[in-house]
Amino acid sequence: MPATPAWPPRSAPRLFVPDTLSQEAPVSIAEAQAHYLLRVMRVGVGDTVILCDDQTGEWAAQVTDTGKKALVLTPQHRLREREAVPDFWLCAALLKKDRFDLLLEKGTELGAARIVPVLARRCVADRLNPDRARAHIVEAAEQCARTALPDLTPVTKLDSLLRDWPANRRLFFADEAGGEPARASFAGEPGPAALLTGPEGGWDDAERALIRAHPQARPITLGPRILRGETAAIAATALWMGVAGDWS
Questions:
Q1: Which of 40, 156, 188, 206 has the most CB atoms within 10 Å of its CB?
Q2: pLDDT value at position 4?
Q3: Bridge partners of residue 51, in order along the sequence
Q4: Cα angle: 233, vertex 237, 240; to 5 degrees
Q5: How far apart are CA 234 and CA 94, in angstroms?
């Protein structure tokens, strides 16, 4: 006797939507998302789509109406509550576009609650398209089945970041000049945390001195090798999640 297939199917498309979801409350999907469902995934009336709203969690929805450029999805029942997110901010100096895209993607997958793009003196890039960046975050969350999206802040200058830093949050500073081993530092200071990683050209002496002088800064080393900006951000975020986050 064949096994009963799982419902909803694992192959069901996943989408984040701006609407607050509730049972039997229809949601209209248009433009790019409608094109993806209708033309790429070839969904039709009766098919299942998984919806998330970054508020109430994850829902199994049924396609109840389709048109040439839009469709209607009706949530049937909630599959999961919105996930609990570790209180971890990834503060990363701006990088070249493709490298910062990777950082946004992996920071989202790894579970960062907030991503803060930082402008430093040696940054190759000096701006970030927020809509494009947000789209990368949403796509990464959809692909790895997250039910929560990290908050993406506007680009922040380093001095402004430090001036307005909250007094209750440790700022682990990935410093190529050295510091305490990252694992020991993460384990020794639990609680609200953030990681600060640098640009392609590294921090200059004045920036390093400014960061190290901050009362919440904790200089850390990520080992004996020099890492690219995106590698440092990804590796240190993964290590924090394993030591002080929700991987344990």
A1: 156
A2: 47
A3: 15, 59
A4: 145
A5: 14
- Inter-helix orientation angle 130-143/97-110, to 10°: 40
- Does 66 share its domain with 94? no
Give the pLDDT score at 161: 98
Q: Consecutive sets of 10 residues in the chain, 248 residues long: mean pLDDT of each? A: 55 92 94 91 93 97 90 95 97 97 98 98 95 97 96 98 97 95 96 97 95 98 94 98 93
Instruction: Examine the domain organization and report whether 76 and 99 are in the same domain.
Output: no
User: Distance between CA atoms of 49 and 138, rounded to whole angstroms?
Assistant: 16
74 and 92 part of one domain: no
Residue 121, classed as helix, strand or coil, is: coil
DSSP H helices in the chain = 31-35, 97-110, 130-143, 158-163, 182-188, 205-212, 229-243
Q: Sign of torsion, CA 245 221 215 149? A: negative
Q: Are residues 19 and 50 in the same domain?
A: yes
Q: How far is CA 99 from the centre of its chain?
A: 15
The answer to whether residue 5 sits within a structural domain is no
Q: Which long-range contacts (CB under 8 A, 24 or more apart) does 126-135 make?
A: 126/94, 127/94, 127/155, 128/94, 128/100, 128/155, 130/154, 133/100, 133/101, 133/104
* pLDDT (0 to 100) of residue 1: 47
Residue 30 lies in a domain: yes
Helix/strand/coil for 242: helix
pLDDT of residue 67: 84
Asked if 177 and 216 sit in the same domain, the reply is yes
Q: What is the pLDDT of residue 69?
A: 82
